[in-house]
Task: inverse folding
């Protein structure tokens, strides 16, 4: 059963985060989240403002940029001792991205290579949570997760997550390793999906976080929330105590609004 209160959530390994986090994907070259963020110092300032606001959970991926988003996070949040302190960093591997193409590769070799690249970009030897970004349709999810489990046992990952997955894929993965978080598309802006509703309740019973991506209904390739952001965040967080919000924004005013959306 989920360990949470109104404002915080405790993962299976005991790490606690504020339930309002920050999705950093848009701090990359636009459009297409490709290349470095044009206003690098502005991105650093925004991430540090998030930290000052009490946001602890930062969501990124090797594919954002690629690499550039993780490097920006390192520039903003690694302290003088090379640590992230109270910040909780979640990243993902398994997607190859170029200027013209996006391709999934969740083979064990790719997952291990991507994790090592993520650690280098984030300038750390351990990332708090590492997701399989999206199953490639060829590699069984259990094989991708078995590779990450070896990395967890080697101390390179705090916990393993799955993104863009079905319940049966989570069930298969749980046979080879503990799964701490699932990140799927879910928003009050989207049509109701009974499979996601079932997923949220099932994960909550297991103490596993559900992290909706695109929580404000945005198209990942276009700027702008589709629903009222404050109302959407309140609806999501009221839905279940295992839901962690990661709204994305490039503006300080929106970041500040989102951070207080649940503190009413
Ligand atoms: N796992 C996956 O496959 C996957 C896929 C997509 C996304 N994600 C993750 O989910 C995170 C969030 O997704 P997202 O950024 O695509 O969509 P989102 O959070 O639904 O919406 C972001 C958009 O809403 C706008 N916005 C945010 N707060 C606002 C506010 N208070 N008032 C008005 N507009 C506001 C932002 O524009 P401004 O910049 O103007 O504020 C931005 O364009 C990403 O950062 C990423 O970490 C994961």
Result:
């Amino acid at each position: 059963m989920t360990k949470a209160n109104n404002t915080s959530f405790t993962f299976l390994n005991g790490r606690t985060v504020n339930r309002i986090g920050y999705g950093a994907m848009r701090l990359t070259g636009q459009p297409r989240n490709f290349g470095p963020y044009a206003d690098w110092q502005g991105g650093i300032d925004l991430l540090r403002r998030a930290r000052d606001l009490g946001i602890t959970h930062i969501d990124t991926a090797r594919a954002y940029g690629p690499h550039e988003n993780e490097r920006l996070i390192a520039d903003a949040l690694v302290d003088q001792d090379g640590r992230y302190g109270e910040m909780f960093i979640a990243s993902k591997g398994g997607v190859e991205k170029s200027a013209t193409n996006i391709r999934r590769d969740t083979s064990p070799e790719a997952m291990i290579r991507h994790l090592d690249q993520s650690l280098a970009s984030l300038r750390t030897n351990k990332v708090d949570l590492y997701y399989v970004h999206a199953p490639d349709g060829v590699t069984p999810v259990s094989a991708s997760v078995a590779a990450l489990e070896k990395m967890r046992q080697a101390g390179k990952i705090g916990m393993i997550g799955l993104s863009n997955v079905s319940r049966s894929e989570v069930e298969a993965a749980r046979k080879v390793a503990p799964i701490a978080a699932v990140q799927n598309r879910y928003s009050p802006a989207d049509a109701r999906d009974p499979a996601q509703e079932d997923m949220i309740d099932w994960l909550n019973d297991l103490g596993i976080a559900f992290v909706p991506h695109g929580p404000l209904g945005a198209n990942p390739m276009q700027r702008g929330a589709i629903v009222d952001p404050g109302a959407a965040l309140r609806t999501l967080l009221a839905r279940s105590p295992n839901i962690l919000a990661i709204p994305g924004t490039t503006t300080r005013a929106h970041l500040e609004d989102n951070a207080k959306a649940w503190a009413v």
The first strand starts at residue 3 and ends at 4. The domain at 3-260 is CATH 3.20.20.100 (TIM Barrel). The mean pLDDT is 96. Helices lie at 40-52, 68-77, 108-122, 141-153, 167-174, 194-206, 229-239, 252-260.
